[in-house]
């Protein structure tokens, strides 16, 4: 018994051709199978490629986690170092206080203004002598202050720190002058964040520090300078957020408020002595009054 089959007949000038529907279905099915097979093979390769990428990302993630742990350990070590240095500075302050007591200098907190100054009237010559030997006036052209003395949040490290100086607004290349007679203790690049800096030693235990300067060797260690002499140029070196001059005033390693010294003039000298109480002025006045 012969079953009927659906056929498709195509006739042209070359004659007629017959196609059975079952053959067409078989070919379509074969094409579908081939397509599915190729799709699965290509999908397998693509999945394998993505797995490789995921593995690379996992490795990078692990590396970043390890670096983060290393940075946390380094930060903890730095914090401990800062605390140790703070303790060292505190010990130095105690030693300085003991040294002052051994010299017979009373604590400034226990001395009245009248006792501190001994009611001494300084002559013009004595005033000029003091102003030439202790820091006074601005070391650069006064264009304003961008950072004050005291506790603040560090603009780069983003943590609360004590700012031992004052930041004076200045473009790169602004001339910097000695605020008093002295000798250059240091002039060069420092890795402690100050960049290129200059340190001057003055009479009576005073010291001034100038940081973030331009790398130009205007002065060198051991060189004597007079008040008003050029010692360098402002810049943006070291740990700095922009061009300025970082200026410090110290007295036997005590950091003092630079603003008092910036505004010091002959006409306000008595007010200055009464304001800056971390220096035993009574003994200095006695020394220059002899």
Short note summarizing the structure:
The protein is an alpha+beta fold and 290 residues long.
Record field, number of beta strands: 14
Distance between termini?
A: 145 Å
What's the CATH superfamily of the largest domain, by name? Answer: Glucose Permease (Domain IIA)
Residue share in helix: 40-55%
Q: At CATH's second level, what is the architecture of the largest domain?
A: Distorted Sandwich
Shape: rod-shaped
* String of helices and strands: EEHHHEEEEEEEEEEEEHHH
Whole-number total of structural domains: 2
Helical segment count: 6
Radius of gyration, in Å, reads 40 Å
Kindly report the average pLDDT value. 82
Given as residue ranges, the uncertain stretches (5+ residues, pLDDT < 50) are 103-109
Proportion of β residues?
A: 15-25%
CATH fold descriptor of the largest domain: Glucose Permease (Domain IIA)
**What is the CATH C level class of the largest domain, in words?**
Mainly Beta
Judged by helices, strands and strand pairing, the structural class is alpha+beta
The largest sheet, given as strand count, sense and whether it forms a barrel, is: 8 strands, antiparallel
